[in-house]
Amino acid sequence: MADITRRFGWRHLRGAPTAHVRHQRAGRLVHDGPGLSFWYRSLTAALSEVPVDDRELAMTFHARTSDFQDVAVQATVTYRISDPGVAAARLDFSVDPDTGVWRGAPLEQLATLLTETAQQHALDVLARTSLSAALVDGVAAVRDRVAAGLAAEPRLPATGIEVVAVRVVALRPEPEVERALRTPAREQIQQEADRATYERRAVAVERERAIAENELASQIELARREEQLVDQRGTNARREAEEHAAADAVRAEAEAIRTVRLAKAEAQAAREVGEAQAHAQAAWLHVHAEVDVATLHALTGTRLAENLPRIESVTVSPDVVTGLLSRLGGAPGGPSGEPA
Questions:
Q1: Is the pTM of this model over 0.90?
Q2: How far apart are CA 18 and CA 34, in angstroms?
């Protein structure tokens, strides 16, 4: 919308760079162009403002496919007014000279024209397409058909309109049909998820089985090695016992040999001692055989004295003294009084 100010019965208009302003006075074109700024009198001026920027027109309409299914088409058309003079002549872009507001609704007329044209071409292509094909390839087909139809529409250049781009955002069936169509896909996705879960479980079970087999193989190998260890320990113990037995046999043999030698030595020593004693005894007897009887008696007394026990002290009791005195006081011949 143009910016209009009032000064002493005059009006000043300052337009935007994206707005094409046409100023007519008494049927004659005075100002014509975008971004103008000028003074005018409101009673004699006829103003029109045509936007020349790119504009987006969003549209939503329903169509029916070849299998009688309703679909909603969401599209966007980008357009611009390429010939403002023609557009101002075909549509009412006039503005109030005091406020700068459009007196009509020219953009709504353009939106209606573009929407009906695009809808006509979209309905034409969808009417010959099944729902499944429309949902798969319908977006591109509808976009190409609408773009071609708008480019070939003669009313648009005659109105000064140029279509820049066409975009089809989505083709959506009715909610019940969409849910029905989603069900097989969801079931397939669920089956794939279940299959992946089963495969993952199978892989986990296989890995657990491999782990169990490895553990069992490890236990078997450990038991085998323990058996070998026990056998080796038995062999070592048997070998050690044999070595101990051999050592004991050698030691016993050596001890027997030593004992025999010792016994022989003792026997030889005893024999030699016996012989020496026999010789000594024989010599002793030989000596005593040549000695007289008195000498033998003396030697016997000496040997007897040597073998008598040692008397440390002698105790004489009164009875012994009395008996001895009585005997001494008797006859000199003996106890009976007779001469000896």
A1: no
A2: 6
